[in-house]
């Protein structure tokens, strides 16, 4: 799997960040020749994926990949340190960038979008900052590239350039910048002044000498400061960002931005606080219930939305809080479930968004009420939608089953029956707002269509888009049957494990 | 031979060059000569900084008359850094102004601009380098009168009311400083700063000395535009020619901050000012109010230069905040922000000047569509604006980091939160301008052919500052080390007692 044997392992880390950045520059240079420009994007994405695969194999071998770049402040600077959770996120991001690029080619050309060069360039820059976030070695590096990600995705969100885009962009940037400057930066500086270091360390960087009250406050600041995790009430940026073209929504809601948010939450929980310390803090339970409320409330709001992308946005908010809840349960298996959910939700949600975009390009429909009987005209798309929906709901034989499984077991182990109930109710709500769409598309005829169906009746989306959504929906299936590589990776994370210890409570002993 | 007189040359060169420009008269030659002199002064200030790093302090007796009777120039880590900032900004602005003032100042007065600019540079350098309190007042007056002239050169008639207000308030400020220095002289009999320090030390508490301190502090506060004595700044910056604003915003108020630092640390001593007179609390409260009130005012203005002027007052609030924390980290944060803010605001005002050059107006409406028409200028404005907000990888982030770290060191958690919250208002006032530039189409009355990017002589200094913003935001070693040594030096020598001379007269 390793094509880069000749290079020093640490160089791979810097390459993973530089390759998309150089790709962005080359896209701008080749702007006048669309086919060349698209080829640059695809080749860059392929190169990046192979680099990440090489890093993965090094991680499995136990090779340490560290890189100190530049010292910004005395004793503190930009540095990178590869660990298994970051590798998981990087795998998801780089693979899905390839697929999204294929999709974007079909979408941007099928929709005759303007400013395509700016689009592909900002895409590549965003992926570059995601890679930097994945491999960040301390909180300062994470914060820096978190902000760079916000800024590089702003032109993508406001791509359309009209009033609606401007308004959406304002909410997007407003919420993300405000939470990161006022809460996250404050939390980072507070951590630095308390612990004296910002490095990510297994088991956390705080010890018993630090006041529990200060740490509890820091936890809340981190949770709300990482606005990309869309914990209520700072979730409004997600539906506001729906003004973006669908490839951007697919990128934002499956790959880059939201996963960077929950990834940061997981990293802070595992490597800054440490799972054991988290159990002692007073605010862990508070934030746990805030996360649970987010899961349920946003599912309810999703049911009221007729616009497909809006419904999917609120579904994403709900699913992100699964990961946050998993992290805050502070148990090895719940964290494993949360990490796995990063991958399974990504594949499922990106399929749904790809389908939404395909529907928009092929039949110009945005609202669910218009999609009755659409299965006749777009069978491949709606089958893919059904597969993605089942994965999000968490039913076999789709990938989402496993992550939901681990999360539920983790909640049971922690004796938080309320959260188990919430997860179950949420699955029911997911069924309620996702399944009717493909069902109505296939089993209800739209007015005036009663003749038998033939392939000639179909008017599907452009081929690149179909290829992309087929790949991701097959991915949902594959991950159900072969989750082992990802699970092995997750088991490498210190303090996280998927093995279930039979709790003495369940056995009935004291 | 130059090395011997290194300390006095940055003052004398511009001072002599100014009347020569009056004689030279013609615009191009005047510009060339002025830029050459300013660049030379910049090189000299760099050498001075190196000398200070090697020897600690450079002391020079003007005319060979020994202190404390003669005027002494005393260069240490603090003023060497600020001098470098002033002379570098002066050179860049002079390069920029050749094209910029063509649209803003009548051609017959161009040579007056260069004369006044060099006089201002001489005055500011004098303030920075001198070790004599009255000499400081003299140079303060020289630079102030030069700035009043500079602001009044604009062809926009509204500059006259702005200048008049600036003149009145500035003169009150300078007079207060003079009264304060006079009171100190009355009590101690000397004007040399080190000598003053040792003699003031003898008096445990004296009403004359304290009143002198109060007058000096208020006078300096007017000069550095500390809230609520800042009312002269927004109109003056708005109606002055853009090149003038770019220079003043980066240098004049920072030099006044230096004066405050010098009087607090070297003359009066930290214990006297902060412990006995409780100046720390006063400065802290005024700084916080300045940050929030002025950031808010910036967010509601329609003239972009006024937005940036109020932003400058808010940034001065940050600098004074660092000062009021009375710690090495706090002072270091202030000194770093002096350096960084010059880079940020210099670039911003240059970009605004470029817009005026092409469009003829600096209202927010004038910025519409410029993202497409003047991409390089607006890109410079964007990056410098992000620096003001405090986005990582720019110098603004470095300043904010040190400031909040200094606050947290003393367990002022609320203060740290307030500093960060102030950045949110910066997002608003910078965001409004960027939205106009990138999201709105060009106004119908403007000809798209004519509205394109400005000549390279204006772009180059602008982008030099922008790239410096990014460079020093990543490789922070130079400004950080310079600020660190300055802060440590000032604190170490805050209570210095030079050999007590005989008090007999």
Structural class by SSE content of chain A = mainly alpha
Strand content of chain B is: under 5%
Shape, principal axes of CA atoms of chain B: globular
> For the residues shown, what is the average pLDDT of chain B?
89
Q: What can you tell me about this protein's structure?
A:
The complex is a heterodimer of chains A (510) and B (505). Chain A is mostly helical. Chain A is built from 21 helices and 2 strands. Chain A has a two-stranded antiparallel ribbon. The longest helix of chain A is centred in the middle third of the chain and has 33 residues. The radius of gyration of chain A is 22 Å and the shape is globular. The C terminus of chain A is likely disordered. In chain B, helix 3 packs antiparallel against helix 19, helix 13 runs antiparallel to helix 18 and helix 17 packs antiparallel against helix 18. The C terminus of chain B is likely disordered. Chain B is built from 20 helices and 2 strands. Chain B is globular and about 70 Å long. With 505 residues, chain B is an all-alpha fold. The chains are: A mainly alpha (510), B mainly alpha (505). Chains A and B meet through strand 1, helix 5 and helix 6 of A and helix 17 and helix 18 of B.
């Amino acid at each position: 799997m390793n094509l880069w044997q000749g290079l020093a392992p640490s160089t791979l880390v810097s390459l993973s960040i530089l390759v998309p950045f150089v790709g962005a520059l080359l896209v701008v240079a080749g702007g006048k020749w669309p086919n060349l420009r698209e080829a640059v994007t695809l080749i860059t994405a392929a190169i990046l994926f192979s680099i990440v695969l090489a890093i993965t194999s090094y991680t499995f071998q136990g090779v340490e990949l560290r890189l100190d770049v530049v010292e910004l402040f005395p004793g503190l600077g930009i540095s990178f340190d590869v660990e298994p959770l970051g590798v998981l996120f990087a795998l998801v991001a780089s693979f899905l960038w390839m697929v999204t690029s294929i999709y974007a080619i079909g979408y941007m050309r099928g929709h005759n979008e303007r400013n395509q060069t700016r689009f592909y360039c900002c895409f590549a820059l965003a992926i570059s900052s995601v890679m930097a976030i994945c491999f960040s070695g301390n909180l300062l590096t994470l914060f820096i590239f978190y902000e760079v990600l916000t800024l590089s995705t702003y032109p993508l969100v406001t791509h359309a350039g009209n009033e609606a885009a401007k308004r959406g962009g304002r909410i997007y940037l407003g919420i993300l910048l405000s939470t990161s400057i006022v809460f996250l930066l404050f939390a980072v500086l507070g951590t630095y002044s308390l612990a004296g270091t910002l490095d990510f360390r297994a088991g956390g960087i705080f010890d018993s000498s630090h006041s529990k009250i200060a740490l509890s406050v820091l936890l809340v600041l981190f949770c709300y400061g990482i606005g990309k995790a869309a914990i209520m009430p700072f979730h409004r940026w997600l539906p506001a960002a729906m003004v973006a073209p669908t490839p951007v929504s697919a990128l934002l809601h499956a790959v880059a931005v939201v996963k960077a948010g929950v990834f940061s939450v997981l990293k802070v929980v595992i490597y800054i606080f440490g799972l054991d310390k988290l159990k002692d803090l007073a605010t862990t339970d508070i934030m746990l219930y805030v996360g649970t409320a987010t899961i349920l409330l946003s599912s309810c709001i999703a049911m009221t939305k007729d616009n497909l992308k809006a419904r999917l946005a609120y579904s994403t908010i709900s699913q992100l809080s699964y990961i946050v809840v998993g992290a805050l349960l502070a148990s090895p298996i719940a964290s494993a479930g949360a990490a796995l959910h990063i991958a399974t939700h990504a594949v499922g949600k990106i399929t749904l968004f790809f389908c939404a975009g395909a529907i928009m390009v092929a039949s110009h429909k945005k609202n669910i009420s218009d999609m009755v009987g659409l299965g006749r005209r777009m069978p491949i798309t709606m089958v893919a939608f059904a597969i993605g929906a089942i994965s999000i709901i968490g039913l076999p034989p789709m990938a989402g089953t496993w992550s939901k499984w681990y999360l539920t077991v983790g909640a049971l182990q922690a004796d938080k029956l309320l959260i188990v109930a919430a997860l179950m109710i949420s699955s029911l709500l997911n069924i309620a707002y996702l399944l009717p769409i493909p069902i109505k598309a296939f089993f209800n005829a739209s007015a005036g269509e009663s003749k038998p169906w033939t392939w000639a009746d179909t008017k599907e989306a452009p081929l690149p888009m179909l290829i992309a959504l087929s790949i991701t929906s097959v991915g949902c299936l594959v991950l159900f049957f072969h989750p082992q590589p990802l699970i092995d990776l997750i088991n490498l994370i210190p303090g996280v494990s998927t093995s279930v210890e039979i709790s003495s409570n369940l056995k009935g002993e004291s | 031979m130059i090395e011997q007189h290194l300390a006095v040359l940055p003052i004398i060169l511009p001072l002599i060059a100014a009347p020569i420009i009056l004689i030279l008269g013609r615009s191009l030659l005047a510009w060339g000569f002025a830029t050459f002199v300013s660049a030379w002064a910049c090189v000299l200030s760099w050498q001075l900084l190196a000398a200070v790093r090697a020897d600690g302090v450079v002391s020079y007796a003007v005319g060979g008359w020994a202190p404390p009777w003669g005027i002494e120039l005393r260069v240490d880590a603090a003023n060497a850094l600020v001098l470098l900032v002033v002379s570098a900004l002066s050179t860049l602005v002079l390069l920029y102004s050749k094209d910029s003032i063509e649209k803003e100042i009548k051609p017959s007065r161009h040579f007056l601009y260069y004369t006044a600019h060099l006089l201002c540079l001489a005055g500011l350098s004098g303030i920075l380098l001198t070790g004599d309190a009255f000499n400081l007042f003299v140079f303060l007056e020289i630079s102030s009168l030069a700035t009043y002239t500079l602001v009044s050169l604009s062809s926009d008639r509204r500059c006259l009311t702005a200048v008049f207000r600036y003149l009145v308030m500035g003169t009150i400020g300078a007079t207060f400083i003079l009264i304060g220095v006079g009171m100190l002289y009355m009590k101690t009999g000397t004007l040399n700063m080190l000598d003053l320090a040792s003699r003031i030390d003898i008096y445990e508490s004296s009403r004359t000395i304290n009143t002198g301190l109060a007058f000096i502090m208020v006078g300096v506060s007017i000069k550095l535009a500390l809230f609520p004595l800042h009312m002269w700044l927004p109109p003056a910056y708005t109606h002055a020619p853009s090149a003038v604003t770019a220079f003043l915003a980066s240098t004049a108020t920072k030099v006044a901050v230096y004066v405050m630092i010098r009087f607090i640390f070297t003359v009066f001593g930290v214990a006297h000012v902060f412990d006995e007179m409780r100046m720390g609390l006063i400065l802290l409260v005024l700084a916080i109010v300045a940050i929030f009130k002025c950031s808010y005012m910036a967010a509601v203005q329609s003239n972009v230069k006024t937005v940036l002027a109020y932003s400058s007052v808010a940034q001065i609030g940050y600098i004074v905040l660092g000062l009021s924390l009375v710690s090495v980290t706090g002072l270091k944060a202030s000194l770093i922000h002096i350096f960084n803010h010059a880079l940020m605001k210099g670039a911003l005002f240059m970009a605004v000047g470029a817009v005026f050059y092409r469009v003829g107006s600096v209202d927010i409406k004038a910025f519409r569509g410029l993202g497409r028409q003047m991409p390089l200028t607006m890109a410079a404005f964007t990056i410098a604006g992000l620096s003001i907000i405090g986005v990582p990888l720019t110098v603004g982030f470095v300043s904010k980091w040190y400031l909040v770290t200094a606050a947290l060191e003393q367990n002022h958690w609320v203060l740290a939160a307030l500093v960060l919250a102030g950045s949110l208002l910066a997002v608003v006032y910078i965001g409004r301008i960027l939205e106009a530039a990138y999201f709105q189409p060009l106004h119908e009355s403007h000809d798209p052919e004519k509205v394109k990017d400005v000549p390279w002589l204006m772009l180059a200094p602008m982008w030099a500052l922008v790239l410096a913003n990014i460079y020093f935001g990543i490789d922070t070693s130079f400004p950080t080390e310079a600020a660190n040594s300055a802060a440590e030096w000032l604190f170490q020598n805050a209570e210095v007692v030079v050999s007590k001379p005989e008090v007999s007269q």
